[in-house]
Each structure stands twice: as C-alpha cells, then as structure tokens.
Design brief:
Blueprint (H helix, E strand, L loop, with lengths): L5 E6 L3 H9 L2 H10 L4 H21 L5 E6 L12 E7 L1 H8 L6 E6 L17 H6 L5 E11 L4 E4 L2 E5 L6 E7 L6 E6 L2 E4 L7 H8 L13 E6 L14 E5 L3 E6 L3 E6 L6 E5 L3 E14 L1
Parallel strand pairs: 1-2, 1-3, 3-4, 4-16
Antiparallel strand pairs: 5-6, 5-16, 7-10, 7-14, 8-9, 8-13, 10-11, 11-12, 13-16, 14-15
Helix pairs in contact: 1-2
GO molecular function: NAD+ kinase activity
GO biological process, one term: NAD+ metabolic process
Protein name: Inorganic polyphosphate kinase
C-alpha cells in the first residue's frame, strides 16, 4: 500500500523572531531599534504576514495528505522522502537552501512578501497553494545545479553557485585545470573561483559576468551549462592570469588542486556548510546529475 503524499512546509525564522530572541521581549527589541532610528512595527508586520502565509498554505494541504514543517536551520537533519511535495514559504534564497537536500521532489515556491522578494524562485502566492497541490508534478521546470566533489569523497551541491577559495576571502593558491588536467592548466593566486548556474546568473555570477564585459553568454536556468570565473587573479613569476573564465558543458569539469594550507568550498552563500580542503587535495566541479524540479 503506497503512502499518501506528504506536504513539507519549509520556512525560516523571521527577523522579528530573531530580534525578540536576542533582546528577550518585544518591548526591549523595540527600544533598541528606536535608539537606532528604526521602528519595530514594520518588522513585526512582515512577521505577521509570514505567519499568515504559513497558516494559509498549511490549510490548503489536502486532508488525506500527511504534513510536516521544517525550519531552515534544521534542513540538514531532516529526511525528505520520495513522495514529498515541498512548499518553500519565504524568500528566493530559501529555495536554494533546500535544493541540495532533494532528489527530484517537486518544489512550490510561495512568496510571503511580494514586492520585496525578486520572486525568481518563489513564484506563487499563498492563495495559489490549493490549486498547485491538486497537480504538484505538473508544469515543473528542471533547474540545473552545480556539484563539487573532493578526492576524499567530500561533496557539495548548490543551486546558484559554488565558491572555492580561502576562508575570509584572502589570497588562495591552487592549480586550476580543465577536464582532469587534459586541457589547459595554470598555477594561480587569486581571491577564489566562482562556478555558477543559470539560476545563479541573477546574483553573484551576474556581477562577475558584467565586470568581465559579458563576453560569455549566460546560461538559462534549465540549460545544462555552467560559467566559471577566477576572482582577481594575481600575476607573478610563479602564477598566471590567462585561465580566468570559461564555460562548462554537461560532461566537462573544472579541477582545482590546493596549494595552500587550507581552502574551502561553499555553495549558495552558506559558508557554515563548506568543504574543508588541505594542501594537495583535488576538487572537481561540474554539472550535477540531479535537477531541482520547480513548479512554474
């Protein structure tokens, strides 16, 4: 007997909840913000809007379905099941946070604050939840993701981009190669390497793309192609600056061999969830075999 679908509502702690947790009470938080020329009521109103959105989405889940909630900080400890339908209630970045924990489950992005969020990934309103849950697998876009795998089996997946470099963004020293060093190879000192997807082309990747004059065509979110850029490569007798950007098609990989005491790799801006890399280690970056199924 097959299990009924489970609706998993993913959310994050609001700014208001964080303020009250830090200062103890609403009144104390209001006093601190007022001393800085800010009004807590705006933040409290956004908190109430998020709570209402969560309640409306939860009420739209069919009665025959199971239901669960998970806060962003608990995602790494939550076990998603194949029959889950994931409802991300919040900001675009929350979809990126949950993407790496999924293996084909459909994702419905619900915007809790229209006008403040770009709405690239949270494309729907709470009132749309019932209609979307009636056919959750229909109309999905399959978004390309990026994967980094180290030679000690450490692995990292991201929806927008993966950054490889020094913790704190100091100078990183490494050897960069294409397709397992069968292509071009260069020893570099730089501020790190960024490898991004078409979804990431609306954020950090786009800033580097614009800085370099937009010579490489940006991939679409569903295209199995990545762009990579070296940040601020430094020329010296031992380090070069010729291998600083490129594209990675579905079967291609970018290889970074560590020549520093300690480098890291993190995805989608989450530095606390990083690969720890030491001298001589090798990490390969390319298109991930799985895709994020985002309901359009």
């Amino acid at each position: 007997m097959s299990l009924a679908p489970r609706a998993v509502l993913v959310h994050r702690t609001t700014e208001y909840e964080e303020l009250v947790a830090r200062y103890g009470t609403h009144g104390q938080a209001a006093f601190v913000l007022a001393s800085r020329g800010r009004d807590i009521e705006e933040i409290a109103a956004r908190h109430q809007g998020t709570r209402r959105a969560l309640a409306e989405v939860a009420a739209a889940v069919p009665l025959t379905w199971r239901q669960a909630r998970v806060e962003r900080a608990d995602l790494e400890r939550f076990l998603f099941a194949p029959e889950d339908v994931v409802l991300v209630v919040g900001q675009d970045g929350l979809v990126a946070n949950v993407a790496k924990y999924l293996t084909g489950q459909p994702v419905i992005g619900i915007d809790t604050d229209p006008g403040r969020n770009p709405g690239v990934l949270v494309r729907h309103r709470p009132r749309d939840a019932a209609k979307l849950l009636a056919a959750p697998g229909g109309g999905c876009e399959e978004l390309t993701m990026v994967e980094a795998v180290a030679d000690d089996t450490q692995r990292l997946v991201a929806l927008n981009e993966i950054y490889l470099g020094a913790a704190g963004h100091q100078t990183a020293r490494y050897r960069l190669g294409l397709d397992g060093d069968r292509g071009a190879v260069e020893t570099q000192a730089s501020s790190g390497v960024l490898v991004g997807t078409g979804t990431g082309a609306t954020g950090w990747l786009r800033s580097l793309w614009q800085e370099r004059g937009g010579r490489l065509p940006l991939p679409s979110p569903t295209e199995p192609r990545l762009l990579w850029y070296v940040r601020e490569a430094w020329p010296s007798p031992a380090t070069g600056t010729t291998l600083v950007s490129g594209r990675l098609d579905a079967s291609a990989t970018l290889t970074l061999t560590v020549e520093s005491d300690h480098l890291i790799a993190f995805g989608d801006g989450i530095e606390t969830d990083a690969l720890r890399l030491t001298w001589g280690q090798r990490v390969r970056v390319g298109v991930w075999g799985e895709r994020l199924r985002l309901v359009g």
